[in-house]
Amino acid sequence: MSSDPKAVLFWFRRDLRLSDHPGLSAAFASALAQGAALIPVAILDPETEALGAAPAWRLGQSLGALQADLEARGAKLILRRGDAQTVLQDLAAETGAREVHWQRLYDPAAISRDSAVKAQLSAQGLAAHSHAGHLLHEPWTVETKTGGMYRVYTPYWNAVKGRDVAAPVALPEGAWPEPAHWPESDDLAQWGLGARMQRGADIVSRHVRVGQQAALDRLHDFAERWIGDYVANRDRPAVPGTSELSAHLSLGEIGVRTAWAVGMAALEQGRNGAETFLKELVWREFAYHLMYHTPHLTSGNWRPEWDAFPWSTDEDDPAVLAWKQGRTGIPFVDAAMRQMYVTGTMHNRGRMIVASWLTKHMMTHWKIGMRWFESCLVDWDPASNAMGWQWSAGSGPDATPYFRVFNPVTQLAKFDPNGAYADQWIAEGKGNPSETALSFFEAVPRSWGLSPDMAYPRPRITPEAGRARALEAYKARSF
DNA sequence: TAGCTCGTTGGACAA
DNA sequence: TTTGTCCAACGAGCT
Asked: What is the pLDDT of residue A478?
């Protein structure tokens, strides 16, 4: 191996931005210091191929935006397919790189892959550097007074709210450290990241903003126009009063430290809603804290006593299909499921309602819902998705009490009093359905056999009967 | 240490 | 129409 380093590799994963990027900045600085080239790489490895349909498609969009951003800086994103360790090793051999940098991820699959990659690269004499940057606080740095992990949100919030958060760092200005020759790269289109999107990707595209500039624009728009009414508006599914940053944060198109800094500035200005927004960012942190310390959060009941609960696990149950298709006959549930199918995201209150309906009224295992979300959500996040489902089901940490069963009828009356959300997403039985409601029928596969002219379905179970049945089962405590 | 307080997001019912 | 209370019990986290 050459003793004269010619390149530093930076491996992009879920951090598809150029600013507020501690890992990339470190790699950049290292390359400059050594007079080496900096080569950005993204890898379609088995872990990436295992993504759900919508997250995979959205990843492709984001990689396209990153390519353009890098090109504007005089750099190129090198795309390679294969297992990460082999790709990095080959690329290092081609370019003379002695160093590989990346930013850490925390889900069980990524941790096991990354530790193996690090060990193997080190054994080959390559320096592998992993950096913090996906989170405000590394999960192991937040401890209770007795040195344990947090299991309840509020004490976690109290522990981190006053902590210093490193200020966002900009990538140095100036010329990109280019190699004499850029290595060969796959064509992004050949990766086929959108191939598993059964529903029309062009329909979802209408509702999706992509890339770091779009993320920053949205953050600032939110801080200027929406944060003041965030406390009330964030509960109203028909009002665009949420930050809408979830997909950007999930793929790292924006750094969470940037969002934190904007939230803190709003707090200092005394803006209403600022603290609530900061708390939401910390919910994301808390989910990662839980997933890191108890990785089974993503795979099974966090409270093992729930293993004996009589969940229905029949994925082919017609009631489950109706839930997925937004045809339960419960307007709030159906509107939310259709919103997800058409836009790739769902309002937070909708997420709680559909999860409560599936796990409580339908007594269906939360993992069935979690997997459907994983295939449909463009903002899918491994930690938040798992925590949210287990919270709703009652099997998770800090979970909702068993008797807290959402009534989707009263919830709709409370948070959508004018029926705007239902009008937005439900076409059946309406004289003049909205464009968005009709677009659901364009998006769904023909095999579902749905049309806006159909009658709106009758519920298979009423909110009252479902609630009573769920409470009976929970009360029995035979599990 | 042992006791105390509290727990993101609700609903039903009585007054 | 609005407001208050109860719906379990337990474990987390602090003092």
From this structure: 55
Regions of chain A short of the pLDDT cut 70: 1-5, 477-479
Q: Which one, of A385, A379, A381, lies nearest residue A354 by Cα?
A: A385
CB atoms within 10 A of CB A125: 9
Q: Is A179 within the bounds of a domain?
A: no
Q: Which residue is nearest to nucleotide C14 (CA to C1')?
A: A145
Residues in A 97-156 whose C-beta is less than 7 A from nucleic strand C are 144-146, 148-152, 155-156
Given this model, what pLDDT does residue A399 score? 74
Q: Is the CB of A475 under 7 A from strand C?
A: yes
Instruction: Answer yes or no: is A191 within a domain.
Output: no
**pTM beyond cutoff 0.90:** yes
Which domain covers residue A11, as residue numbers?
A: 1-133
Nearest residue (CA) to C1' of C10: A401
Does one domain contain both A129 and A142? Answer: no
pLDDT over 70, % of chain A: 98
Cα–Cα distance measured from residue A196 to residue A456, given in angstroms and rounded to the nearest whole number = 29
Axis-axis angle for helices A212-221, A53-72 (nearest 10) = 100
Question: Which nucleotide is closest, CA of A348 to its C1'?
Answer: B9
For the domain that residue A211 is a member of, what is the CATH number? 1.25.40.80
Q: Which residues contact A256 (CB under 8 A, 6 or more apart)?
A: A134, A135, A136, A249, A281, A284, A285
CA distance A338 to A324: 9
Structure tokens that stand for A342 in this block? 């058409």
Footprint of strand B on the protein (CB under 7 A): A 152-154, 235, 279-280, 283, 348-349, 352, 388, 391, 398, 400, 403-407, 410-411, 414, 463-464, 467
Return the structure tokens found at A178. Answer: 């280019």
A65 SS3 class: helix
Can you tell me the distance from the alpha carbon of A302 to that of A292, in angstroms, rounded to the nearest whole number?
13
Report the domain count for chain A.
3
Distance, in Å, from the CA atom of A16 to the CA atom of A9, rounded to the nearest integer, reads: 15
Rounded to 10 degrees, the C-alpha dihedral A391/A392/A393/A397 comes to 10
pLDDT at A403: 81
Q: Return the beta strands (E) in A310-467 as ranges.
A: none
Residue A192 falls inside a structural domain: no
DSSP label of A400: P
A472 & A367 share domain:
yes
Nucleotides of C under 7 A from a protein CB: 7-9, 11-15
CB proximity list for A226: less than 8 A, separation 6 or greater? A233, A240, A241, A242, A243, A273
